[in-house]
Amino acid sequence: MENDHIIDLNRLKEMRVELTRFMMAYKFACDEINTKINILSDEFNYIHDYNPIEHVKSRVKSPESIFKKVLRKGYDFSLDSIRENIRDIAGVRITCSFISDIYVLSDMLKNQGDIKIVEVKDYIKNPKPNGYQSLHMIVEIPIFMTDRTENTYVEIQIRTIAMDFWASLEHKIYYKYNKEIPERLANELRNAAVVAAELDRKMEQLQKEVSAIKEENEEETGLAFLENGQIPTILMKTLSEYQKKIEQE
Ligand code: 0O2
Protein backbone atom coordinates (compact mmCIF):
# COMPACT_ATOMS: atom_id res chain seq x y z
CA MET A 1 0.00 0.00 0.00
CA GLU A 2 2.78 2.41 1.01
CA ASN A 3 4.74 1.40 -2.16
CA ASP A 4 1.69 2.19 -4.34
CA HIS A 5 1.72 5.67 -2.86
CA ILE A 6 5.41 6.15 -3.77
CA ILE A 7 4.80 4.93 -7.34
CA ASP A 8 1.89 7.39 -7.69
CA LEU A 9 4.07 10.24 -6.49
CA ASN A 10 6.82 9.31 -8.96
CA ARG A 11 4.27 9.05 -11.75
CA LEU A 12 2.91 12.47 -10.80
CA LYS A 13 6.41 13.96 -10.96
CA GLU A 14 6.95 12.35 -14.37
CA MET A 15 3.64 13.74 -15.60
CA ARG A 16 4.55 17.21 -14.39
CA VAL A 17 7.85 17.09 -16.30
CA GLU A 18 6.06 15.71 -19.41
CA LEU A 19 3.44 18.48 -19.29
CA THR A 20 6.04 21.21 -18.76
CA ARG A 21 8.08 19.93 -21.71
CA PHE A 22 4.92 19.67 -23.80
CA MET A 23 4.00 23.33 -23.20
CA MET A 24 7.62 24.54 -23.46
CA ALA A 25 7.94 23.19 -27.01
CA TYR A 26 5.12 25.56 -28.06
CA LYS A 27 6.75 28.54 -26.36
CA PHE A 28 10.02 27.75 -28.17
CA ALA A 29 8.12 27.35 -31.46
CA CYS A 30 6.64 30.86 -31.02
CA ASP A 31 10.13 32.20 -30.20
CA GLU A 32 11.54 30.54 -33.32
CA ILE A 33 8.87 31.99 -35.64
CA ASN A 34 9.23 35.42 -33.97
CA THR A 35 12.99 35.33 -34.62
CA LYS A 36 12.38 34.47 -38.27
CA ILE A 37 9.94 37.37 -38.60
CA ASN A 38 12.33 39.77 -36.81
CA ILE A 39 15.10 38.82 -39.24
CA LEU A 40 12.83 39.48 -42.23
CA SER A 41 11.69 42.75 -40.66
CA ASP A 42 15.28 43.93 -39.97
CA GLU A 43 16.37 42.98 -43.47
CA PHE A 44 13.45 44.89 -44.95
CA ASN A 45 14.49 47.93 -42.88
CA TYR A 46 18.18 47.79 -43.80
CA ILE A 47 18.08 46.71 -47.43
CA HIS A 48 14.78 47.95 -48.82
CA ASP A 49 13.40 51.30 -47.77
CA TYR A 50 10.08 49.70 -46.88
CA ASN A 51 8.91 47.27 -44.19
CA PRO A 52 5.61 45.41 -44.79
CA ILE A 53 5.42 44.18 -41.17
CA GLU A 54 3.37 46.51 -38.96
CA HIS A 55 3.36 44.38 -35.81
CA VAL A 56 3.59 40.82 -34.53
CA LYS A 57 1.86 39.12 -31.61
CA SER A 58 2.27 35.59 -30.38
CA ARG A 59 0.63 33.47 -27.73
CA VAL A 60 0.57 29.93 -26.40
CA LYS A 61 -2.98 28.64 -25.88
CA SER A 62 -3.82 28.24 -22.18
CA PRO A 63 -4.23 24.66 -20.86
CA GLU A 64 -7.88 25.56 -20.13
CA SER A 65 -8.56 26.55 -23.77
CA ILE A 66 -6.73 23.43 -24.98
CA PHE A 67 -8.93 21.18 -22.83
CA LYS A 68 -12.11 23.02 -23.92
CA LYS A 69 -11.15 22.49 -27.57
CA VAL A 70 -10.36 18.79 -26.97
CA LEU A 71 -13.83 18.39 -25.41
CA ARG A 72 -15.56 20.41 -28.16
CA LYS A 73 -13.91 18.41 -30.95
CA GLY A 74 -14.22 15.07 -29.13
CA TYR A 75 -10.50 14.23 -29.34
CA ASP A 76 -8.68 11.77 -27.12
CA PHE A 77 -7.18 13.36 -23.98
CA SER A 78 -3.66 11.89 -24.44
CA LEU A 79 -0.72 14.26 -25.08
CA ASP A 80 -0.04 12.49 -28.42
CA SER A 81 -3.59 13.14 -29.57
CA ILE A 82 -3.51 16.78 -28.44
CA ARG A 83 -0.14 17.28 -30.15
CA GLU A 84 -1.47 15.88 -33.42
CA ASN A 85 -4.97 17.36 -33.43
CA ILE A 86 -4.76 20.79 -31.79
CA ARG A 87 -2.55 22.64 -34.24
CA ASP A 88 -3.01 26.18 -32.93
CA ILE A 89 -1.48 25.77 -29.45
CA ALA A 90 1.33 28.04 -30.66
CA GLY A 91 -0.07 31.02 -32.55
CA VAL A 92 1.65 33.97 -34.23
CA ARG A 93 -0.31 36.86 -35.74
CA ILE A 94 1.40 39.22 -38.19
CA THR A 95 -0.22 42.50 -39.20
CA CYS A 96 0.88 43.90 -42.56
CA SER A 97 0.30 47.22 -44.31
CA PHE A 98 -1.17 45.92 -47.57
CA ILE A 99 -2.84 42.76 -48.92
CA SER A 100 0.04 42.09 -51.35
CA ASP A 101 2.46 42.17 -48.35
CA ILE A 102 0.57 39.23 -46.83
CA TYR A 103 1.40 37.03 -49.82
CA VAL A 104 4.99 38.33 -50.10
CA LEU A 105 5.55 37.45 -46.46
CA SER A 106 3.80 34.07 -46.57
CA ASP A 107 5.94 33.12 -49.64
CA MET A 108 9.10 34.13 -47.75
CA LEU A 109 8.12 31.89 -44.84
CA LYS A 110 7.11 29.05 -47.19
CA ASN A 111 10.56 29.20 -48.81
CA GLN A 112 12.45 28.69 -45.54
CA GLY A 113 13.92 25.18 -45.55
CA ASP A 114 13.08 24.27 -41.96
CA ILE A 115 9.41 25.29 -42.20
CA LYS A 116 6.99 22.64 -43.46
CA ILE A 117 3.67 24.00 -44.68
CA VAL A 118 0.92 21.70 -43.43
CA GLU A 119 -2.19 23.66 -44.39
CA VAL A 120 -3.11 27.07 -45.83
CA LYS A 121 -6.57 28.61 -45.39
CA ASP A 122 -7.05 31.74 -47.46
CA TYR A 123 -9.92 33.63 -45.86
CA ILE A 124 -8.95 36.69 -47.97
CA LYS A 125 -9.79 35.04 -51.29
CA ASN A 126 -12.65 33.17 -49.56
CA PRO A 127 -13.88 35.20 -46.55
CA LYS A 128 -15.90 33.41 -43.85
CA PRO A 129 -19.71 33.93 -44.08
CA ASN A 130 -19.53 36.44 -41.18
CA GLY A 131 -16.99 38.54 -43.16
CA TYR A 132 -13.78 37.35 -41.40
CA GLN A 133 -10.63 37.77 -43.52
CA SER A 134 -7.07 36.61 -42.87
CA LEU A 135 -4.49 34.22 -44.29
CA HIS A 136 -3.96 31.21 -42.01
CA MET A 137 -1.04 28.82 -42.30
CA ILE A 138 -0.41 25.77 -40.18
CA VAL A 139 3.33 25.14 -40.28
CA GLU A 140 5.54 22.54 -38.64
CA ILE A 141 9.02 23.43 -37.36
CA PRO A 142 11.67 21.36 -35.59
CA ILE A 143 12.44 22.39 -32.01
CA PHE A 144 15.82 21.11 -30.83
CA MET A 145 15.59 20.19 -27.14
CA THR A 146 18.32 18.78 -24.87
CA ASP A 147 17.55 15.14 -25.68
CA ARG A 148 15.19 15.19 -28.67
CA THR A 149 13.81 17.08 -31.60
CA GLU A 150 10.14 17.97 -31.34
CA ASN A 151 8.36 18.75 -34.63
CA THR A 152 5.86 21.38 -33.52
CA TYR A 153 2.81 22.90 -35.19
CA VAL A 154 2.34 26.68 -35.23
CA GLU A 155 -0.64 28.58 -36.59
CA ILE A 156 0.46 31.76 -38.39
CA GLN A 157 -2.26 34.30 -39.13
CA ILE A 158 -1.34 37.13 -41.52
CA ARG A 159 -3.73 40.05 -42.03
CA THR A 160 -3.90 43.77 -42.77
CA ILE A 161 -4.55 46.47 -40.15
CA ALA A 162 -8.15 46.78 -41.39
CA MET A 163 -8.72 43.00 -41.17
CA ASP A 164 -7.21 42.99 -37.67
CA PHE A 165 -9.40 45.92 -36.55
CA TRP A 166 -12.51 44.10 -37.80
CA ALA A 167 -11.54 40.75 -36.24
CA SER A 168 -10.82 42.21 -32.81
CA LEU A 169 -14.15 44.06 -32.72
CA GLU A 170 -16.05 40.99 -33.97
CA HIS A 171 -14.29 38.87 -31.31
CA LYS A 172 -15.44 41.27 -28.57
CA ILE A 173 -19.03 41.33 -29.87
CA TYR A 174 -19.05 37.51 -30.24
CA TYR A 175 -18.15 37.02 -26.58
CA LYS A 176 -20.31 39.91 -25.33
CA TYR A 177 -23.37 38.16 -26.84
CA ASN A 178 -22.18 34.74 -25.69
CA LYS A 179 -21.51 33.55 -29.28
CA GLU A 180 -25.08 34.47 -30.46
CA ILE A 181 -24.65 37.82 -32.27
CA PRO A 182 -28.08 39.46 -32.94
CA GLU A 183 -29.00 39.42 -36.66
CA ARG A 184 -28.89 43.24 -37.03
CA LEU A 185 -25.34 43.42 -35.61
CA ALA A 186 -24.22 40.41 -37.67
CA ASN A 187 -25.41 42.22 -40.82
CA GLU A 188 -23.62 45.41 -39.77
CA LEU A 189 -20.44 43.40 -39.22
CA ARG A 190 -20.71 41.80 -42.68
CA ASN A 191 -21.12 45.29 -44.19
CA ALA A 192 -18.15 46.59 -42.16
CA ALA A 193 -16.02 43.69 -43.50
CA VAL A 194 -16.89 44.71 -47.09
CA VAL A 195 -15.97 48.35 -46.30
CA ALA A 196 -12.68 47.22 -44.68
CA ALA A 197 -11.83 45.12 -47.77
CA GLU A 198 -12.60 48.11 -50.02
CA LEU A 199 -10.34 50.32 -47.88
CA ASP A 200 -7.53 47.74 -48.20
CA ARG A 201 -7.89 47.74 -51.99
CA LYS A 202 -7.93 51.57 -52.15
CA MET A 203 -4.83 51.92 -49.92
CA GLU A 204 -2.96 49.33 -51.99
CA GLN A 205 -3.84 51.16 -55.20
CA LEU A 206 -2.64 54.48 -53.70
CA GLN A 207 0.60 52.88 -52.53
CA LYS A 208 1.25 51.50 -56.05
CA GLU A 209 0.64 54.93 -57.59
CA VAL A 210 2.98 56.65 -55.11
CA SER A 211 5.73 54.03 -55.69
CA ALA A 212 5.42 54.42 -59.46
CA ILE A 213 5.78 58.24 -59.18
CA LYS A 214 8.77 57.84 -56.84
CA GLU A 215 10.51 55.43 -59.24
CA GLU A 216 9.85 57.74 -62.20
CA ASN A 217 11.33 60.73 -60.34
CA GLU A 218 14.39 58.75 -59.31
CA GLU A 219 14.99 57.59 -62.89
CA GLU A 220 14.59 61.12 -64.26
CA THR A 221 16.99 62.70 -61.80
CA GLY A 222 19.35 59.74 -61.81
CA LEU A 223 19.19 59.65 -58.01
CA ALA A 224 17.89 56.10 -57.73
CA PHE A 225 20.89 55.09 -55.64
CA LEU A 226 20.42 57.80 -53.00
CA GLU A 227 19.19 56.98 -49.52
CA ASN A 228 16.72 59.72 -48.48
CA GLY A 229 18.53 62.11 -50.82
CA GLN A 230 21.94 61.25 -49.30
CA ILE A 231 24.77 59.24 -50.86
CA PRO A 232 25.04 56.04 -48.78
CA THR A 233 28.01 56.13 -46.33
CA ILE A 234 29.53 52.94 -47.72
CA LEU A 235 29.47 54.40 -51.23
CA MET A 236 31.00 57.70 -49.97
CA LYS A 237 33.82 55.75 -48.31
CA THR A 238 34.55 53.73 -51.44
CA LEU A 239 34.50 56.89 -53.59
CA SER A 240 36.90 58.82 -51.32
CA GLU A 241 39.25 55.82 -51.10
CA TYR A 242 39.21 55.64 -54.91
CA GLN A 243 39.88 59.39 -55.15
CA LYS A 244 42.88 59.13 -52.77
CA LYS A 245 44.28 56.26 -54.85
CA ILE A 246 44.02 58.29 -58.07
CA GLU A 247 45.69 61.29 -56.40
CA GLN A 248 48.61 59.13 -55.25
CA GLU A 249 49.16 57.75 -58.74
P1 0O2 B 1 -7.92 32.50 -30.38
O1 0O2 B 1 -8.23 33.05 -29.03
O2 0O2 B 1 -7.57 33.58 -31.37
O3 0O2 B 1 -6.93 31.40 -30.36
P2 0O2 B 1 -10.97 25.94 -34.80
O4 0O2 B 1 -9.51 26.24 -34.53
O5 0O2 B 1 -11.27 24.48 -34.85
O6 0O2 B 1 -11.88 26.72 -33.90
P3 0O2 B 1 -10.50 26.05 -37.46
O7 0O2 B 1 -11.46 26.02 -38.64
O8 0O2 B 1 -9.66 24.85 -37.26
O9 0O2 B 1 -11.30 26.43 -36.19
O10 0O2 B 1 -9.52 27.23 -37.51
P4 0O2 B 1 -9.55 28.58 -38.31
O11 0O2 B 1 -10.77 28.77 -39.10
O12 0O2 B 1 -8.26 28.55 -39.04
O13 0O2 B 1 -9.59 29.70 -37.15
C1 0O2 B 1 -8.90 29.64 -35.97
C2 0O2 B 1 -8.54 31.01 -35.43
O14 0O2 B 1 -8.75 32.03 -36.42
C3 0O2 B 1 -9.39 31.45 -34.26
O15 0O2 B 1 -8.79 30.96 -33.10
C4 0O2 B 1 -9.34 32.98 -34.36
O16 0O2 B 1 -8.12 33.48 -33.87
C5 0O2 B 1 -9.36 33.18 -35.86
N1 0O2 B 1 -10.73 33.24 -36.39
C6 0O2 B 1 -11.32 32.34 -37.19
N2 0O2 B 1 -12.56 32.72 -37.50
C7 0O2 B 1 -12.77 33.90 -36.89
C8 0O2 B 1 -13.89 34.81 -36.85
O17 0O2 B 1 -14.93 34.59 -37.43
N3 0O2 B 1 -13.74 35.94 -36.10
C9 0O2 B 1 -12.59 36.23 -35.43
N4 0O2 B 1 -12.55 37.37 -34.73
N5 0O2 B 1 -11.53 35.39 -35.44
C10 0O2 B 1 -11.62 34.23 -36.16
P5 0O2 B 1 -9.61 30.71 -31.76
O18 0O2 B 1 -9.06 29.48 -31.16
O19 0O2 B 1 -11.08 30.73 -32.05
O20 0O2 B 1 -9.31 31.93 -30.88
Automatic annotation (TrEMBL):
It comes from the Bacteria. One of its GO terms (molecular function) is GTP diphosphokinase activity. SMART domains: RelA_SpoT. Gene3D superfamilies: Beta Polymerase, domain 2, Nucleotidyltransferase. Its EC number is 2.7.6.5. SUPFAM superfamilies: Nucleotidyltransferase. Residues 58-181 form the RelA/SpoT domain. Pathway: Purine metabolism; ppGpp biosynthesis; ppGpp from GTP: step 1/2. Pfam families: RelA_SpoT. Keywords: Coiled coil, Transferase. Residues 189-223 form a coiled coil. InterPro entries: GTP_Pyrophosphokinase, NT_sf, RelA_SpoT. PANTHER family: GTP PYROPHOSPHOKINASE YJBM, GTP PYROPHOSPHOKINASE YWAC. This is GTP pyrophosphokinase. It comes from Lederbergia wuyishanensis.
